[in-house]
Amino acid sequence: MSLFWIVFRQLAEIEAMATSKKLITREEWEKKLNDVKIRKEDMNKLVMNFLVTEGYVDAAEKFQKESGTEPDIDLATITDRMAVKKAVQCGNVEDAIEKVNDLNPEILDTNPQLFFHLQQQRLIELIRNGKVEEALEFAQEELAPRGEENQSFLEELERTVALLAFEDVSNCPVGELLDISQRLKTASEVNAAILTSQSHEKDPKLPSLLKMLIWAQNQLDEKAAYPRINDLSTAMLEDPAV
Amino acid sequence: MPTPTSAPPHSAPDFLSRLASPDPEIKLKALRDIKNQIIGNRTKKLSFLKLGAVPAVASVLAASLSHSPDDVIHNIVVQSAAVLGSFACGFDAGVRAVLDSASFPHLLRLLSSPDDKVVDAAARSLRMIYQSKLAPKFDFLEAKNMEFLLSLLNSESENVSGLGASIITHSCESGPEQLALCDAGVLKKLINLLGGTLSQRNASLESLAAIFRGNPDVVSKFVEGSKNGSEVVLKCVGSEGVNALTCVSELTKDRNLRTRLLACECLIVIRNTCPGYLQDIGIKMKLVNLLIELLDDPGQVGDDAPSVFSSLITEKEDMQKLAFEANAVNKFCHHLQKNQLNPKRLQGVLLALSDLCAKLESCRLAFLSLKVLNSVTDALTHDSADVRSAACICLRNVTRSIKNLCAGYFMNEMLVIPLVRLLDDPSISVQVAALGAISNVVVDFTTRKSTFVQCGGTKQLVQLSKSMDSTLRLNALWALRNMMFLADDRCKETIILELTASLLASLIAATSTGPEAFPFGMTAPTFQLQVSASVKSLKRSDKVYLIVNLCSFGILTADPEPSIQEQALGFVRNLVDGCAKSIEFIFAEDGIILDAVGRQLQSASKAEIGIQGMYVLGNVASGNEFHKEAVMHQLLPQVDNGTQSFMMKFLQSNDSRLRTAAVWAIVNLTFPACPGAFSRVVKLKNAGIESQIRNMVNDPCLDVKLRARTVLTQSMTFSDGLT
């Protein structure tokens, strides 16, 4: 064999090593997956954790009955928590504050940021309803003292009061405060604080598991071609592109 | 048209009348309204407090306890407990009002209620009270109390067991208390709580730290006693053969930031208490990095992290070095530059930086290179006294940098003027801290000491050296002493004119002022006693007035504090250091300063006083004939009253520093080129001092040995004339 051929073959091999990833067929993949054992109880606990954290109290009750999975929290507290969350989502902030205080007076007494955000939401609702005078009085009486205590609160307060300066609030730079997303943000902050006060994680575990799945797939993509899950909602294994 | 929903809020007196209503429903509504107004709202708490809401709510609670319980009454009890708890939450004035209202025993009684809601509400309120320093101290040494505490810790309710832990955190201070808790089995309960809910875990970590602090016996019981035992330990670490210490270490990785901080604090208390535990480099690095990370939290955890960090590195050079390598100086300086820091955090950051700069020049240089000195000088005028004091302490440690002192870097108006202003601060601790910083700044090796004199600093220091507060006197004198260090004659003259020779003499030692100088025939001690008892209640201006008068009465005869006498002598030592002209200062007013030095040396209560005093005499003895003879006069009084001369005592001292100082004086007195040297050598020989020095030619201290030999060589020059 001439030298040319030897060099040529070596080059070809190097090229193949660089480009070709290990290919795993669907059959091989499914076989590997079948070898992994998952306990049913663990699955049930994850589902229960999701239902409880997200506040699906009726579903959690049914699920407890049907699967025999114990929730890691008193289900009655979920109802209270959801009532608070709902009150904020509907703009009844004062009502929400009273409910939180009934649930546990420590939450707002020891969490100045959350308390400020709830008061801020109250101000936003007053402005939304066109109660300008009341809004100004409320800002001065209730929110200004908090701004004196904390610089970042003062900045947020200024931003909120700026809503009053615009004729057309929907097109003003701080207009997003009136958006429904602001209510949802405040509601989820209250929800998280209540969960923490009940020694419960504020986020369900399932999303983190899925995040980890995506991360692991991305890592694996660099080394192999395999049946991938692209659509999380169907969890369909899709054939590797060869 | 007014909108129907914007009805005017209830006026405050209205709340009180509703609370007093005979209708329980109205009462209940009023309680709920107050509760929802004050929770989270400091301003509202204060205004309700001023209206007398606390006693009103307390009496509603007291009255409800005697009623037969129905739903409304029961609800009133829960709500009033919650209101009282909120008044006590993070608000000392509120705690005081609640304690004054005598609701404390009522709340305690509620803990034994059959109703869980009532128990929870009462426990929560009591926990709030116990989180304040004002809460009454709980006596653990009383058997009944200990039983009660254990029943709290055993409770299923997290509020009740948390209350138990809070009581320990608040009240456990002394060694016997720590041991009593340990012997009663509290450690085991607290270890169990580590595996409980978030609030139980945190409360337990805090209590553990309180039980451990400064008590190595308890710490080793915790570490050794928990080996192969507790299920909780197994549960939280997941493997056998480990102890509760590992359990606490694991909690430094907890998701909850407060838990992480408290676990760090607990570990630091353990390693500071028992130097045998947690010393490996891995755990040291872990603690440093964790605490630096926690600093980034914008909330309370971040506010508290700097002080925990300080407790890790304070007085520990190895830890300071590690922290420096972990970039801690940069990190804290970076925080310092942020605007509008919470006062507690600002104080913590300043103190952490001062701890970092306490020993290591590398840290000070890093700090200075980051150009944050302006932020520190800004903090000197902060509203909070704690912050002002922390800024001074930070400056004190940063200005230990000899390199920068030599360059005259700190003697500028930006720094000096606000510091001098703080000498007038209403808070004594700020004054003391400012004196600490000034003491270092005025050492300044350049000739710029005049900057300090010009802005009135010297006057202020002299004023403070006459203060009724001994810490102030001590630190003021210290600053003056450093000011004297290598100062030029003009500067020295300004200071001594301000201070006056007689005051200086009085700070050094007692004069012969008789009791007739005191009003109403009182003797000096009685008068002083009465004055100091009443002076605490005086206004500042009155105090100054009093001090001026006391000086004229001659009451400040001898400062009662040996440490102040030492500083005063150190001051004189620097005063008479240098040329003959400097030495003349000590002969002002018929030499009362020198006499005072002599008297003080006669009765010196500690070695440090002897050392400073002997250096004063040594410095004076380096002057002209007249100066030397004056020293001789102090060393060998004309009248022999049978007491041993202090010179002999010092030469025979066990303290080599004192021996050195004493021999130096003799070296200067016997310097052969001086006309009177011969007669002095004879006198010293007759007093037995020369033979004492002969015994010292092989002194274990090299310095003493060399000086003793110098003395002998010098007196040998005259040996022909001696018999």
From TrEMBL, chain A:
InterPro entries in the record: CRA_dom, CTLH/CRA, CTLH_C, LisH, Ubq-SigPath_Reg
Every CTLH domain range: 77-134
Source taxon at top rank: Eukaryota
UniProt xrefs under Pfam families: CTLH, LisH
PANTHER family, per database record: RAN BINDING PROTEIN 9-RELATED
Identification of the protein by name: Glucose-induced degradation complex subunit
Gene encoding the protein: GID8
TrEMBL record, chain B:
Chief place where the protein resides: cytoplasm
InterPro entries linked to this entry: ARM-like, ARM-type_fold, Armadillo, ARMC8/Vid28
Stored SUPFAM superfamilies: ARM repeat (SSF48371)
Compartment(s): Cytoplasm; Nucleus
GO cellular component: cytoplasm; GID complex; nucleus
Spans traversing the lipid bilayer: none
Pfam families linked to this entry: Arm (PF00514)
Alphabetized UniProt keyword annotations: Cytoplasm, Nucleus, Repeat
A single BP term in Gene Ontology: proteasome-mediated ubiquitin-dependent protein catabolic process
Entry protein name: Armadillo repeat-containing protein 8
